[in-house]
Amino acid sequence: xxxxxxxxxxxxxxxxxxxxxxxxxxxxxxxxxxxxxxxxxxxxxxxxxxxxxxxxxxxxxxxxxxxxxxxxxxxxxxxxxxxxxxxxxxxxxxxxxxxxxxxxxxxxxxxxxxxxxxxxxxxxxxxxxxxxxxxxxxxxxxxxxxxxxxxxxxxxxxxxxxxxxxxxxxxxxxxxxxxxxxxxxxxxxxxxxxxxxxxxxxxxxxxxxxxxxxxxxxxxxxxxxxxxxxxxxxxxxxxxxxxxxxxxxxxxxxxxxxxxxxxxxxxxxxxxxxxxxxxxxxxxxxxxxxxxxxxxxxxxxxxxxxxxxxxxxxxxxxxxxxxxxxxxxxxxxxxxxxxxx
Length: 341
Description:
Blueprint: E1 9-15, E2 22-26, H1 29-40, E3 48-51, H2 60-63, E4 70-75, H3 84-93, H4 100-112, H5 116-129, H6 155-176, H7 183-202, E5 227-228, E6 243-244, H8 250-256, E7 260-263, H9 267-280, H10 289-297, E8 302-305
Parallel strand pairs: 1-4
Antiparallel strand pairs: 1-2, 3-4, 5-6, 7-8
């Protein structure tokens, strides 16, 4: 079909440092370029057009093969564009100190965007840059505390309480298992649970795990409050690189409640029954409650995981039989008294 019977090609065009797009139609690459330069008041000499998506330069041979309404970028002499990655790089460079201009630009892009994937990416970006991470108190960030009791005055205080609540629930499970233990061993089992309870109280139920103000070795997040998924129980890392900052805004705080402290060696299926069995079959030996404590309540056996990385399958891992009982100390032999010469 000759060009005479063709309709003019239509595009959405913008300049490199402008978020404004305008519709343009033309019969040739040169015509679209000239219209674009006139609209953005840029010199035609040295300017060129490329696809926003991947940076491919638009030439006369390629012109008619490009789908209608494709997004084009107008580049002047010396300017380069590598596609989406260039936009991402520019946004990331401003990511740590987002300002009104960045947020406004992203909002403008989102309002014009039709592609679902890019809508999602822009919405997520706006969600992230709009976070008030640095704020800590209720007075500094009232929306973050919506729906929470008035007694919570700081973000760290609430998240510490959130972690403590999880650990307390594990303790309740361990304690309730006493009813399953045989009568002869039940008293000793309850005594060990009481010892663990005192240890947890002293450690403030390990609430520091979620507290960004805690010492580096006692928390699972950065000093800014960023948590990274530690991956499923059978992997060393998270392949999806999940991360979240519940200190940022209310939505992130709510979403963080779906993250799990997952027991690598399973609490209900393995650790608690093993503790009960150890007490029942101790036969004069002393149960190493510290070992079970570490498996039940500490990061030695707990992994913080995104809900998608929380595998509900049987872990098929067992307690270390060498650590269930404390080493028995042999009584020292008395040397026979030396007779006086």
